[in-house]
Every structure is written in structure tokens, then in C-alpha cells.
Write a structure and sequence with these properties.
mainly beta, five-stranded antiparallel β-sheet, 21 strands, single chain, 4 helices
């Protein structure tokens, strides 16, 4: 997939230079904007916090929907660390976002949030090979210095989650996620439906910046900036986190950006690439790794 990602950037750049950028189709209904390229679509709600409400390939949905949980569904951007920005600000998490249409996508911008002193901007674009480019911006719009990182959360149904493990020995953090194993440097989590009274979580750093999840014929891969040093992590957070909700109702695929000092008017940018691939049922671990690497 790394070769595919590089090829996507080249194709998009050449198309722009040539003046023939292949546009994703953009539609809107009730404040939800849907980008479509081939059999891939992503939907984002401008009325509900710029939340990604749907991510489909070949008609199959990857994201948890409101019937599973009326609040914790879809994919969101949060401010990190949790100790400083929890619960999420209503203005950023559920408020109305302004929308601009781009050549191959959309840009959504929140209001200035008086509670956190931050403003979020979210950009989503599709390339011709159906890679989803995500660019998050967190801006300090208050008069005080802020310390913050990007926190990306995608909620999915249980399946198989995996990533290249670097370390789980993080100061002040203890992972309690069951049903995990490590094989040749890859951490695997195999979902098991259990009557959990409370959520379970895993905290870790990665050897390379990706986190993948397989569920019912779909493979989702998130590529994100790598954090080389533990001291650059947001306090009491992992670079990668896997959260299983009480009763196993859904799984969160989480990654945190670099902890940054933001002076008034300054911003941080966090860029990701998401890939959603339709594959056969019951793939082996080797097959899943082959598709990612």
C-alpha cells in the first residue's frame, strides 16, 4: 500500500499541473456532504461537528452508525490529551461547521470555541485511486498558550485490528485489553463479544505509522505521522490506542499526534491517509499484512 500511496500523490499532482484533475463527485443532503470516487464514498455532517458519518466501499459500511450508539458513532477529531480536554467540547464535537467545496473534496471549519480556545478545520479529499486524504488543523484562537495534540478516533464494529508494535511500556499507563497477541512485531487484537461492565483499552507506540482493521470483507488502514520520541506524546496517551466499549458494542481505532505548544494565532496540522479495501472473507494474517505492506 505504500507504493499505492506514493502513486496517488503523483497522479493527483500530474493531473493538477495538466489542468485535468479528476474530480470526486460531491453531493449534499440535510447538511451531510458525500464524496464519491468509483465505488468508494465518505460522508461528513456539517451540522454535527464535522463528523464522518459513513465510509463505504462497494456498498458496504465500515463505520458504526447511530443505531449502535446515538452519540459515539462515525469518526471524529478530538483535542488531546484527555486529561485537559474531556469531555469533548460541544462546539467542536457537535456544533455547526462552515463548508467550502474544494477541487476534490471539502473543507469544514468550526466556530471559535470559547470553552477550549480552539478552532478545528477538517479537510477530506479523494484521489483517483480512491485514497482518502485527511488534513486536520487545530488553531489557538484565544489569548493564552495552549498545549494540545490531534486525536483521531474511528469507530468500527469488532473484527481484527493490528499494527506494528514498538512499545507498550508507557509511563502511567496500563493496558487491559484482552484477546491480544504479538507475532513478528505485529500486535493483533481479535474481537470477542463479551458482557463487559466497563471499556477496555490498549496504549502503545508504533514502529511505523499505520493502524489497520478488518471486518466482514473490508480492510481499513489509517496512515498517520510517526512520533519518534515518547516525550513528544500527549501526557497519559499512546501514539496508538484501541478502545473496546462496554459490552463490546463497538471498537475505537485511535491515534494521537505530537504534543505541541501553541501560542495565540498558531496552528498545528495533522495529515492522514485512509484506505478502505474490499477483500474476501476470512483472510489469513499473512494476507492482511500483505495487503497493508
Amino acid at each position: 500500500m505504500d507504493k499505492k500511496r506514493n502513486r496517488a500523490w503523483v497522479i493527483l499532482a500530474v493531473s493538477i499541473i495538466a489542468g485535468c484533475t479528476p474530480h470526486a463527485r460531491i453531493t449534499e443532503a440535510d447538511g451531510v456532504y458525500t464524496l464519491t470516487q468509483g465505488d468508494l464514498s465518505i460522508s461528513v455532517s456539517a451540522r454535527v461537528g464535522g463528523k464522518v458519518t459513513s465510509l463505504k466501499r462497494d456498498g458496504k459500511e465500515m463505520l458504526v452508525q447511530p443505531d449502535v450508539h446515538p452519540k459515539y458513532y462515525g469518526a471524529v477529531l478530538w483535542a488531546s490529551p484527555q486529561r485537559d480536554y474531556w469531555p469533548p467540547s460541544p462546539a467542536l464535537d457537535n456544533g455547526h461547521y462552515q463548508v467550502e467545496t474544494l477541487d476534490n473534496g471539502i473543507r469544514l471549519t468550526s466556530e471559535k470555541d470559547t470553552l477550549t480556545g480552539l478552532r478545528f478545520t477538517k479537510e477530506f479529499a479523494l484521489t483517483p485511486d480512491t485514497t482518502i486524504h485527511v488534513r486536520y488543523t487545530i488553531e489557538n484562537v484565544c489569548r493564552e498558550v495552549k498545549y494540545v495534540a490531534a486525536w483521531d478516533v474511528i469507530r468500527v464494529h469488532g473484527g481484527v485490528t493490528f499494527f506494528p508494535l514498538k512499545d507498550m511500556n508507557l509511563e502511567g499507563l496500563a493496558s487491559d485489553l484482552a484477546h491480544t497477541s504479538i507475532d513478528n512485531g505485529i500486535l493483533w487484537y481479535d474481537y470477542v463479544q463479551e458482557p463487559l461492565n466497563r471499556g477496555q483499552k490498549l496504549f502503545a507506540t508504533t514502529q511505523s505509522g499505520w493502524l489497520a482493521h478488518y471486518h466482514k470483507g473490508l480492510l481499513l488502514v489509517k496512515h498517520f505521522p510517526l512520533i519518534d520520541k515518547k516525550e513528544d506524546l500527549p501526557p497519559l496517551q499512546g501514539e496508538v490506542e484501541i478502545f473496546v466499549a462496554p459490552n463490546g458494542s463497538y471498537v475505537e481505532l485511535e491515534n494521537h499526534g505530537r504534543y505541541t505548544e501553541l501560542h495565540p494565532g498558531q496552528s498545528i496540522h495533522y495529515q492522514e491517509e485512509w484506505e478502505l479495501v474490499a477483500i474476501g472473507n476470512a483472510p489469513t494474517q499473512n494476507k492482511l499484512l500483505e495487503l497493508v505492506q
